[in-house]
């Protein structure tokens, strides 16, 4: 059996540990969550802030994100009011004025909102926060709705990074996934961002889309070589029709699977590397002069719900529907639906928490080891405070992985090999107490490849 077949099974993406399906179902009460935030902020005022902006004009059928489809732009102002009301609850409850190291607008489609509404949102946030000198502020830009005015309005407020949803450059695939977007729109967005002074541009690119071939991947990398974005997120298409029913719109037989999907990945990775991009970890590539590659080289890379980052903040504040906050020992998630979210923050004047998890000390140790593997490519546990029960079980699985050549092992250390990089999620899995205690149903995670 090839390694690809052996390791291609449903595995979490480890944007958190424990992963969301294994959290305590109960949300911590508001005071507990705020208490935990205040404890952490007493150590450092530096925070990452994520704001979820859920609206999109049209449904891209492949999409696995939490979004709301509408063409009614009247939804903009009340939604921004709700986010600012949620922010006001935090501002009232935090003992210290937060200092923003990182700010990310995700979605949905942030550029669904007018530049003026986005400006009002950011002004409302910055009025009650300081900004770190080495801050990193970014947003997700849909090339079909991003205007120079959007880019300028956000740049005026300190934004220096933009992540462009490219996905693919083949018009036929765009049609199949119901995405109205042209290569010219991507080029225009890149040019406008550069002119305004954005210092880091990211492209989101997906392999494994319906009817996608090696030629499509080659075409994407040629375009990437022309435009030279500093970063590439090269995601494997996650097929989860039980969460995203839109994915039923195309024929499952059109999806590249197994070896075919692997070949798309391998072609993309090899071409990106030969074009000067460094493989910095799960799904992410970056030019060597970008902060992300530098942080990876210095062992300073960090990872949170927004993906890889150079901002190593223990606290993530999260505003908007479905957002996830993190105080290192506690996770919370907001209401997913816009109406319930708005009712909680405006109607009832409370935080819209629906789910959460309090991390035990064992959880926190495992979380640290998973972060080490994801961000540094190794982990070790000779010191007492780095040991936990999960390591005992993990070692057995890792011996087998060492035989497969995807890691190297010494008594207190595991290191991911170049061969093992595509299997990072699998290499973390042995540590996952929750997974081994209760194997997930088929409809929980996407396949690792
Ligand atoms: C802008 C959209 C987001 C992407 N990722 C996240 C957001 C908000 C954050 C996120 N991604 C997942 C979770 C669940 C928690 C966890 O597993 O640790 C969160 C909070 C996992 C996930 N992402 C996608 C799916 C289908 C899943 C669940 C199943 C699985 O583990 O595979 C789809 C998806 N969303 C984004 C990407 C890059 C992506 C798939 C590659 C962006
Ligand atoms: C935020 C980014 O998440 C990626 N994205 C959204 N849905 C999926 C999915 N089902 N599979 C893989 N990537 C996805 C897109 O590349 C988008 O730009
Ligand atoms: S990919 Fe982006 S634009 Fe398309 S439905 Fe998802 S969030 Fe909306």
UniProtKB/TrEMBL annotation:
Localization per record: Cytoplasm
Top enzyme class: oxidoreductase
EC code: 1.3.98.3
Primary site of residence: cytoplasm
Positions with a binding annotation for S-adenosyl-L-methionine 1: 50, 107, 140, 324
GO MF terms, alphabetically ordered: 4 iron, 4 sulfur cluster binding; coproporphyrinogen dehydrogenase activity; coproporphyrinogen oxidase activity; metal ion binding
Coiled coil: none
Reaction(s) the record says it catalyses: coproporphyrinogen III + 2 S-adenosyl-L-methionine = protoporphyrinogen IX + 2 5'-deoxyadenosine + 2 L-methionine + 2 CO2
InterPro entries: Aldolase_TIM, Coprogen_oxidase_HemN, Coproporphyrinogen-III_oxidase, Elp3/MiaA/NifB-like_rSAM, rSAM, rSAM_sf
Swiss-Prot/TrEMBL cofactor(s): [4Fe-4S] cluster
Radical SAM core domain ranges (all copies): 41-278
Residues noted as binding S-adenosyl-L-methionine 2 in the record, renumbered to the chain: 62-64, 108-109, 167, 179, 204, 238
Pathway(s) annotated for this protein in UniProt: Porphyrin-containing compound metabolism; protoporphyrin-IX biosynthesis; protoporphyrinogen-IX from coproporphyrinogen-III (AdoMet route): step 1/1
Keywords: 4Fe-4S, Cytoplasm, Iron, Iron-sulfur, Metal-binding, Oxidoreductase, Porphyrin biosynthesis, S-adenosyl-L-methionine
UniProt GO BP: protoporphyrinogen IX biosynthetic process
Superkingdom classification of source: Bacteria
Pfam families in the cross-refs: Radical_SAM
UniProt xrefs under CDD domains: Radical_SAM (cd01335)
A GO CC annotation given for this chain: cytoplasm
NCBIfam families: hemN
UniProt subunit comment: Monomer.
Membership in a protein family: Belongs to the anaerobic coproporphyrinogen-III oxidase family.
Protein name as annotated: Coproporphyrinogen-III oxidase
Organism field: Neolewinella aurantiaca
């Amino acid at each position: 059996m090839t390694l690809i077949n052996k390791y291609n099974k449903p595995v979490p993406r480890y944007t958190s540990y424990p992963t969301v399906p294994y959290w305590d179902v109960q949300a911590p009460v508001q005071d507990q969550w705020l208490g935990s935030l205040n404890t952490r902020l007493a150590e450092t005022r530096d925070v990452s802030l994520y704001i979820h902006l859920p609206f999109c004009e049209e449904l891209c059928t492949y999409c696995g994100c939490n979004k709301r489809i509408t063409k009614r732009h009247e939804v903009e102002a009340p939604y921004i009011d709700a986010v600012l009301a949620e922010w006001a609850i935090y501002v009232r409850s935090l003992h210290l004025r937060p200092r923003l190291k990182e700010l990310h607008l995700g979605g949905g489609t942030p550029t669904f909102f007018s530049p003026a509404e986005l400006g009002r949102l950011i002004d409302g946030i910055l009025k009650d926060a300081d900004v770190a000198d080495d801050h990193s502020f970014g947003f997700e830009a849909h090339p079909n709705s991003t205007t120079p005015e959007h880019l300028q309005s956000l740049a005026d407020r300190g934004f220096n990074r933009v992540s462009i949803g490219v996905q693919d450059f083949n018009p036929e695939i765009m049609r199949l996934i119901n995405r109205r977007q042209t290569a010219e729109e991507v080029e225009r967005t890149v040019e406008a961002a550069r002119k305004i002074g954005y210092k880091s541009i990211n492209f989101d690119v997906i392999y494994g889309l319906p009817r996608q071939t090696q030629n499509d991947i080659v075409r994407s990398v040629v375009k990437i070589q022309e435009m030279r974005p500093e970063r590439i997120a090269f995601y494997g298409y996650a097929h989860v029709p039980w969460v995203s029913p839109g994915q039923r719109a195309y024929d499952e037989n059109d999806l590249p699977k197994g070896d075919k999907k692997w070949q798309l990945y391998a072609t993309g990775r090899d071409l990106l590397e030969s074009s000067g991009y460094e493989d910095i970890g799960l799904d992410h590539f970056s030019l060597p002069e970008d902060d992300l590659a530098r942080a990876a080289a210095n062992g300073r890379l960090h990872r949170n719900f927004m993906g890889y980052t150079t901002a190593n903040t223990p606290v993530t504040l999260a505003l908007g529907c479905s957002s996830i906050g993190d105080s290192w020992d506690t996770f919370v998630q907001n209401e997913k639906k816009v109406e319930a979210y708005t009712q909680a923050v405006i109607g009832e004047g409370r935080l819209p928490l629906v789910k959460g998890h309090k991390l035990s000390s064992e959880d926190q140790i495992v979380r640290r080891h998973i972060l080490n593997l994801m961000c540094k490519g190794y982990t070790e546990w000779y010191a007492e405070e780095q040991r936990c029960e999960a390591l005992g079980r993990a070692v057995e699985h890792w011996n087998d992985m060492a035989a497969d050549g995807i890691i190297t092992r010494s008594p207190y250390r595991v290191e991911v090999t170049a061969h093992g990089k595509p299997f990072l999620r699998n290499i973390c899995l042995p540590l996952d107490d929750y997974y081994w205690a209760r194997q997930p149903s088929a409809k929980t995670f996407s396949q690792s490849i």
